[in-house]
Design goal:
Helix content of chain A: 25-40%
Number of strands of chain A: 19
CATH architecture of the largest domain in chain A: 2-Layer Sandwich
Largest interface: A-B, 90 and 89 residues
Structural class of chain A: alpha+beta
Shape of chain A: elongated
Strand content of chain A: 15-25%
Number of domains of chain A: 2
Oligomer: homodimer
Strand order of the largest sheet of chain A: 1-5-6-12-11-10-7-9-8
CATH superfamily of the largest domain in chain A: Bira Bifunctional Protein, Domain 2
Radius of gyration of chain A: 27 Å
Mean pLDDT of chain A: 94
């Protein structure tokens, strides 16, 4: 039986997923990110080290161990709930063996022990990139993340992606300039804007952050600012708040927007209400909307950490972004927005004239495979009509008939031509299944 | 800290692993196997349904649940310990939506809660293929498995693989023909041959299977037979035992050997002592040795199940084989038998003459990436010597110097030539990291 929160795709969806993963991976590699995979488990104390009790953790126990405690000398292990915590641990463990700045990508399943009723994924695939450096990490790496993600989405038959960008320094500096001391509390409240609306947020700012009505109104006006070009700077300035951190944040955010506009106009939008809630970002933050799917929220998020990891007095700052692959595909599959031309890799079925000719058919198949053409031999020496049906049901375009000479039939058009297994090739578009958007 | 049994590779090893996985996958697809991934967890009762208490299972528990029992209405979940049990469950669940015979491959992590002291993997990657059909599965699918595995290994820069094949029907028929009733007990004892030697096995056959000395000796003589061609049939016949099941088994085994010899001489060896212990195979069984690594045991095993799954009165027989990817790579890495030409995908570093020219360098990088050339821009506008060192330390072959005109330098040879980012390409051998064997 299906288990709530643990999605499983049938082969056609899995083929689409692999296609998407291949495109993600090759784009990441074009930007020089090296592959990494970490183990699925971490000691519980590592998983909870950032106070992440909000991410529900699955703990592991050996069936053979009695009770709930791990065997002597063993840590309590849990499944990782993201790829950032394991990556930070990996950097700490291997910093002496890595070249910094270290660019890595990581495409793996993660698990969250959500309550099943919520209908959320409990197992899902993420595709992360991060750049981490020793001591300091130049800001320009923050401007690179949207370019990579933009290229990923441009390589896929999907709706257009818009990356929403903000900078915690803008918010924090603005709130400080307004006179707030507990700027984190203000940020947490602003983060509720989409859920509860501006009136409620204003009330909450007064209630929980000690804001005056004017301060609350100013915070809301900042959060309203949104621009696909550098005009947001003027609009923030027009609110009349000054603070050095605000200036720094505006400068950084402007760089992200300008670099993205140079690369692909419309790719990013400065969106000053983006807060990324409880995550430990210290500067740039990213969220991503798919056009037409805005109501489903962000499918790709991340930001800058001043301290991704630390070893003694050495800090390792980082910036990264994570594509929620399962979440994104779940949305698109739900709308039938992606399809694949056939549910098997096979391009050619070699028809079997009679059981005693299987060796001959195997030789034909081997010759085709040798030149990269995915081929199956028919499972039984049924009537040719049935063998053609075998191919047709699977969307396999070609059936090969051994003979003197051999012939190959495009079963879509009915066209049948003489062919030699050591030379014939299908049109490039037929060689592999093709993934298309709606 | 590393956790015993949970291997983690540094990026160069991970690059090799990905290269190997890509080759495995593309070979599987050339034979028409469709991709499948199942969830990492199964209900405990599914995991134990074949009586597999010998495979140690990791159970899951939500951190937020008190005690050891799952929330009401939820099954006790455990991590899968192989890919066969989840595949069988998937077939049962989805048989109405699949086209039979159904060919699928599945490349995933599995987990076994072994005691840490044993130095065994507790998390490892397997790459499985299986063909499953409704009611009956023609025997020729058994002859196909070694061809696929042979092609996988021929595509990899690795020692030669030899697939050892046997057939349970040969053993069972032979033991029956000799007069044994509990043939399973004889098989289990013969399976200990490599561990305890023939004298001890003979004694055990007398002790636990009620064998006479002559019967025990005959069983051992059968187990000694080994041949890369059909000559094993004569040698079995020469032992003077007759039984219809023995005849059937010999005929099947001969087909596997002959088909493989036609495809790639030396690829398989009939090895009549192979028993595959406690697994539920009913006919053909496979093990695989890497030349030079025989002492480490099988790195790729499988066989035929008369009942892989069943739904009501409908049986789903299957045949499959599984490459132990982590185990195999662990062995090869341990002997430094595989290497990669550089630990990053990057082919070109664009040198940054000064910070104010980053946009220009980004444009050059974008032009190169657009044509599939993995490119990074130097992280800082350091002296060119330091920027060349940045590339050199990572094994990146080319450094690009923006100018009028641009030039590109092969830092291995020192050769520097004029180049245009919209036209230049490296030699094909430099474009991506190259994996080589020793």
């Amino acid at each position: 039986m299906p288990i709530s929160g643990f999605p499983e795709w049938l082969p056609p969806q899995r083929m689409i997923e692999q296609y998407v993963l291949d495109k993600i991976r090759s784009t990441f590699e074009l930007y020089g990110f090296a592959p990494l995979e970490t183990r699925a488990v971490e000691p519980l104390e590592t998983l909870l080290s950032k106070g992440e009790t909000s991410k529900e953790v699955y703990l592991l126990r050996r069936l053979q161990d009695s009770g709930d405690t791990p065997a002597k000398g063993e840590d309590q292990l849990g499944l990782h709930f993201d790829l950032t915590v394991p990556f930070a641990r990996f950097v700490v463990e291997n910093h002496g063996r890595l070249q910094f700045p270290f660019r890595r990508y990581q495409i793996q399943k993660v698990w969250r022990g959500e309550r099943p009723q919520e209908g959320r994924y409990r197992e899902f695939l993420q595709a992360d990139i991060d750049v981490v450096n020793r001591d300091t990490l130049p800001f320009h790496f923050d401007t690179e993340m949207p370019l990579v993600i933009g290229d990923v989405f441009r390589s896929l038959p999907m709706p257009r992606a818009v990356i929403l960008v903000n900078n915690r320094k803008v918010c924090e500096g603005f709130y400080r300039g307004l006179g707030f001391e507990d700027t984190a509390q203000v940020l947490r409240t602003i983060d509720k804007l989409d859920k509860v609306g501006p009136d409620k947020v204003a009330a909450l700012l007064v209630e929980t952050a000690g804001a005056t009505d004017a301060q609350a109104a100013a915070c809301l006006r900042l959060a309203e600012i949104s621009a696909t070009d550098g005009s947001f700077v003027e609009r923030v300035r027009a609110l009349g708040v000054t603070d050095p951190l605000l200036d720094e944040g505006l400068g950084e955010l402007l760089q992200v927007v300008e670099t993205a506009n140079e690369h692909a106009p419309g790719l990013v939008r400065a969106e000053l209400k983006i807060a990324r809630g409880l995550d430990y970002y210290t500067g740039t933050v990213y969220e991503t909307q798919l056009e037409g799917y805005e109501r489903f929220g962000s499918i790709c998020s991340g930001g800058r950490y001043e301290t991704l990891a630390s070893v003694g007095n050495t800090r390792f700052p980082g910036v990264g972004i994570s594509i929620g692959v399962s979440r994104m595909l779940g949305l698109l599959f739900g709308q039938d927005a992606l399809s694949v031309s056939r549910p098997v890799p096979t391009c050619v079925v070699v028809a079997l004239p009679s059981d005693d000719r299987r060796a001959e058919c195997d030789r034909i198949a081997a010759a085709l495979r040798k030149r990269g053409i995915p081929t199956e031999v028919a499972p039984t020496a049924a009537k040719f009509g049935k063998q053609i049906q075998f191919a047709d049901r699977r969307g396999i375009p070609y059936v090969w008939f051994p003979g003197e000479p051999d012939t190959v039939k495009d079963i879509r058009s009915g066209e049948q031509v003489e062919a030699d297994a050591s030379a014939w090739a299908p049109p490039a578009a037929d060689l592999h299944p093709v993934v298309t958007g709606r």
